[in-house]
Amino acid sequence: MGALRRLLMSSIGKKYVMGLSGLLLIGFVATHLAGNLLIFSGSEAYNTYAAKLHDLGALLYLAEAGLLALFVVHVLYAYWLVAENRASRGDEGYEIGYRSKQRTTYLNLAPRSWMAISGTIVLGFLIWHLIDMRFGLRDNVDPTFERYVDEGLQSEDGRPLFLRYERAIQILQTPVSFVLYAVGSILLGFHLSHGASSWFRSVGLETHGLGGPLKKLGVILAVVIGLGFASIPIYVWVAGVEVGDLSAAEARERARHVSEQALNQPVEAMTAEDVAPAGSPDSDAGD
Amino acid sequence: MIDLPHSDGGHLSLTVKVWRQDDADSPGAFQTYKIDDINPEMSFLEMLDCLNEQLIQEDKEPIAFDHDCREGICGTCGVMINGMAHGPLPNTTTCQLRMRQFKNGDTLVLEPWRAKGFPIVRDLVCDRSAFDRIQQAGGYISVGVGSAPDANSVAVPKKIADAAMNSAACIGCGACVASCKNAAAHLFTAAKVSHLSLLPQGSAERKDRARKMVAQMDEEGFGACSNTNECQAACPANIKVTDIARLNREYAYASLGTSD
């Protein structure tokens, strides 16, 4: 145990933690993007994906707990390192600032030079994003799903059925969301353009001749992830995606459709008239 | 690599802004001096010599700066020139820098290396004995390797020999620490660890070496590596950041297994 503690307290060990937690977070972010891009396929595909994901139940909570732990470790170690690194530099800075001798650096703006700043902005965005999408606490957005839940739209075990697509579109339609989600996504890309390849060296995997190609792959991955996420708010804004003001009956119908198709699960608390009469479109969907 | 100004061959008149500090405990400040008639073929340290002669004639205290061999091999000199360790040229020590790299009328800002691990002794001189202590922690071979073996009796592949030699080129000047935003000493430590651990004679103690040298490096108050590659750009001995990857690898290997 003493050896492990010594390892995790050393300057190199802390970077192992940063690199490996960062790598796992990249894995999450890439998966998250793949799922989110279903928004381009429209309501049904996205809601079906969301319903299936949320149907994982305890497994999902376990995954969320793991993710939370990863984020906490990554962020705490980052600020710990920043504090130590600042102390190492000393109180007296250079008079005219440090000037890079690297050809590729323009005005010291290379992403590698401001990981703590880009990381902090991404963290702020992440918290905002969780408030919006995970907890649904932003009240300037019409919480569509809650209104329908009040009207009895629940699955058999009492969980509310969210119309995730409609809700995401409504949140992204607000101007403040457009700016925050686009900026947050691009900053995430900046952060990863260093992080996605830097971890190789931090954990000692980089060897001679591998640095250049790894850097390029990292930047490509970062651009795909950054622009991939940014494309969603831009798409919603530029294409003017609308979900319209669904009536309770329409929302219930849509949710029931998703529920039946994705989970093969009937929706509780339907009135007798709502239960589809024979020959309704939904009976085909279940096949 | 870097757009370098060149003088037209005429002698230079320069404004030199120098950090003056009596000792580690006194507050320091910049002093500005004018110096004329600098031959562009002079080395940077010769320019400082001229400036000091001028200061002595004016009955002022000359500027303290470190220097020894003046041919780029001892690692003693080192000044932050306009925010760049050893000045604007790549793979160059301060003593190898010529005044032709500057233009008539330029202002030069000269500062000591600044790092918690390198306390300032006086003016441009800082105490780099932290590097000696890192070296003493494990940068040696203590197992008996016998007398000098017959030529080629210890087989070392050319690639390995070259890599060890490249790492051994480190002169311990401290430019890596000075140019790192975290004042990290990883490039120095990595060069020393790489140099010895690559060779058969040094591989017997590689675990203890990596562990002890890294522990000492942290103890001295140097920061962590952020992989920004500034050390590599500032290094006069052309040490590569792939050595840092090797150090990280050696350290993982040393930490996970039993000691030597």
3D architecture notes:
- Chain A is mainly α and 287 residues long.
- Chain A has one domain (7-89, 111-274): 3 helical TM bundles of succinate and fumarate reductases (Up-down Bundle).
- Chain A is built from 11 helices and no strands.
- Chain A has helices at 2-9, 11-36, 43-54, 58-89, 115-134, 144-150, 164-173, 175-202, 211-238, 248-263, 281-285.
- In chain A, helix 2 (11-36) crosses helix 4 (58-89) and helix 2 (11-36) runs parallel beside helix 9 (211-238).
- In chain A, 33% of the residues are buried.
- Chain B is of the alpha+beta class.
- Chain B has 2 domains: 12-120, Ubiquitin-like (UB roll) (Roll), CATH 3.10.20; 128-256, Orthogonal Bundle (Fumarate Reductase Iron-sulfur Protein, Chain B, domain 2), CATH 1.10.1060.10.
- Helix content of chain B is 35%, strand content 13%.
- Chain B has 9 helices and 7 strands, in the order E-E-H-E-E-E-E-E-H-H-H-H-H-H-H-H.
- In chain B, the strands form 2 sheets. In chain B, strands 2-1-5-3-4 form a 5-stranded mixed sheet. In chain B, strands 6-7 form a two-stranded antiparallel sheet.
- In chain B, helix 2 packs parallel to helix 5, helix 2 runs antiparallel to helix 7 and helix 7 (206-219) packs across helix 9 (242-256).
- The longest helix of chain B is centred in the C-terminal third of the chain and has 15 residues, at 242-256.
- The chains are: A mainly alpha (287), B alpha+beta (260).
- At the A-B interface, helix 1, helix 2, helix 4 and helix 8 of A face strand 4, helix 7, helix 8 and helix 9 of B.
